[in-house]
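Researcher: Here's my situation. A collaborator sent me these components and asked whether they could plausibly form a single complex. I don't have experimental data yet, so a predicted model of the whole assembly would be a useful starting point for our discussion.
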Amino acid sequence: MTTKYAETEPRQDAVKHVGRPVDRVDGRAKTTGEARYAAEHRYPGMAHAALVHATVARGRIEAVDTEAARAVPGVIEVLTHENAPAMKPAPKTSLMNLSSLASGTTVSYLATDEVHWNGQPVAVVVAETPETARHAASLVRVAYRELPAVVDFAAEEPNASPQKSSVLQPAGGDKGDAVAALAAAPVSVDLRFTTPPEHHNAMEPHATIAVWDGDRLTVHEGTQNIAWLRAHLAQRFGIPERAVRVLSPYVGGGFGGKGFVWAGTLLAVLAARATARPVRLALTREGVYRTVGGRTPTVQRVALGADGDGDLTALIHTSVAMTARIGGMPEGVVSSSRHLYDAATIHLRQRLVRLDLLANTAMRAPGDSVGSFALESAMDELACELGIDPIELRRRNEPERNPMDGKRFTHRMLREAYEVGAERFGWRERDPRPGSMRDGRWLVGMGVATAYHPSLTMPADVTVRLAADGAVVVRCALQEIGVGAATVQAQITADELGVPLEAVRVEIGDSELPAGPGAGGSAQTAGAAAGVLDACRKLKESALALARRAPDSPLRGRRLDDLEARDGGLYHGGRGETYAAILARAGRDHLEAGGGTGMLKFLAKTLNERRRWVKAASGAHFCEVRVDRDTGEVRVSRWLGMFDVGRVINAKTAAGQLRGGIVMGIGMALTEATQVDPRTGRIMNPSLSEYHVPVHADIPRIDVHWLDEPDPTMPLGLLGIGEVGITGVAAAVANAVRHATGKRVLDLPITLDKLL
Amino acid sequence: MRVTFTVNGREESADNVWEGESLLYVLRERLGLPGSKNACEQGECGSCMVYLDGVPVCACLVAAGQAEGRQVRTVEGLAEGDRLDAVQEAFAECGAVQCGFCTPGLIVQAHDLIARVERPSDAEIREALAGNLCRCTGYEKILDAVRLAARRKAAT
């Protein structure tokens, strides 16, 4: 068996920077309060905006009374659909122009008297101070003519219609006749699961500062996609992209919630144009719930049939999720069931209901996080029915090729993940009988579940500049949402060029830089890495070309592939020279190179790869819970995640991504739910006091480990790790609760009322 | 009204402060000290934590007028010149910082804990930091950072 590594044990061959637990480059700025987030910039004459939210789910505005608001000293303007300047409508979406996907909704804000959801901004107050704007916003009176609205997901679920497939995401599929196979199976389970809507709750509420200078626009905003935001603003406000500058050096968390463009951004820019003042619109926490979409609720059925040995003969996974009439993202809820188990027959379907609610959006591992809860809970229940250990059941059904279509996996180490994880967690201590393990008043349970998240890359343009004094500058409009974007690319650059880490500065977070990939789909690090590798190679080729022109260079006659980049230069064995020497001899003060692939080439490569391969990050979760036998309180007491995420670039930041995903998954399992009033469509708990994210005291020690085997098809062999951590987590908790109590909870979150 | 108090050792005043204005608002919007973050405005998340006369408080829940004549210390006032405080150093070093938005509040809270308790147990750390939400890190590394800072502080 290969050697296994933990976050504290870098690969033995990580003699350079890649693989090491390097400290993040922005640690100082973030611990001293020097880092400036979007709302924290100041402009002379900056005004402040606040939103007025609709209080009906669907209707027409009959009258807006702004008199009282306008009378408040310090109010500059009150914008409504009656007086706001027009924006262009959101563009038609097309996969040939990915930035056309940027719009969170299709609503033309303040250009229509139509109300599409309970919470839609229907007026914007601009004032000299934030408090004045907020107070005046509370004085705006809006009269509505209400129209019938469909807002109750549970009631609407039977009326769902089939989801459409796309190039990137099939919505269903069949292998054989799973319905017949299920009916004939000697052992089977057939379960119905529900998961509630959720919200990202990044700690930084969305904020925008918009500054117009003639027809040029500067926007400060924490975004997960600088390029999309820039393109979308240019389109909506009818100016060229080059006239828009987006600045986003620090993003206070995203998780999908800052991946698209929502009302607050557009209205800040609109208000700045209307008032000819720089305008800041910083959403309150409630404002985020009202105007930024969250995770769809789901209803899922998973039915599994097996023979007496536990070989799967049928796998049925169907789902209903939501989108809104005004947009939203159809999720791949049953996606994991395409990849995880070698069932003889498979039947997959996804359906959608369209509601008069705010559009849903991507939230950490859309589809896979909720889908894995259902699939992995059902597998556990089947193991109980069969009387087989749940790890053994998964081992028996581990496929050699992708079950739906026989494509090859680029990389798959789930067997090893379970084997090593079980050993480290102490799985063999588990007595399989439910309720058999106790610790005083606590019922102790242990559960496992598989984590699985498809791997993507996105194209990035990168430039690398190396100066004669040894300073290296990497430029790419990456987004730092907490992942250590600049840090990991600095590590890669330092290794590729053979220079000290301290010599590398990575410039990110500014649309003036070469375009980066968005921070979404766990795709940013790999995409940027491909651009960095390409640019570094070109830069070394230029250096070598310069050196070879000199008759006395030790690099004469050498090819780049024969050379090693180290000690600030290029070497063949002991012979070579530094970049500084090469530049000095040539009379140059720097070298610069650009790397990256164009979108068309990238799409062609991606589609070609998808025809042949399936690739994903994956892992095994091990969870121990304690359930109070009298109150039903569930405490997670131990966790171990053993992942296969390809090569890890930075052990410190990687562990943070995986662990953060696990904790968000524990929230999903036990506490998190956005409560939507089924009569009015209004979110009833739009605050951190009523939407419960896990706190420090809820979370035990969490061990994360990885196998650290590079994926052969990815840049440097790395697989994205932002999302895989959350997949499977809720199932691991539910399975542990089942083991502790004998009760199978099918409806998230697992609150104590469900265990009494 | 006019409010005068000491912030990080310097006397500061703000004029035309509204009666309902929070200390957080005065720090961020009037005094140019945005280190303390505004994330919930209801004392749930701890991102705005500052010292008020040596006691950590959520600045969003303190009326600015209550700070009159008192001592406020924010995350901006923990380092000594270029030298970071042990807690700041430990957070960066342990990987306890990701997006960074909860970090200032956590650092103030942790700074207070290890000033009061020389070697806090894990349970004490979890309890002390339970009012500081973090959505990125998964908390484990924050615990490591507090342990490390406490160890270093005890050694000096």
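Model: Some features of this prediction you could bring to your collaborator: The first helix of chain A runs from residue 27 to 32. The two ends of chain A are 45 Å apart (CA to CA).
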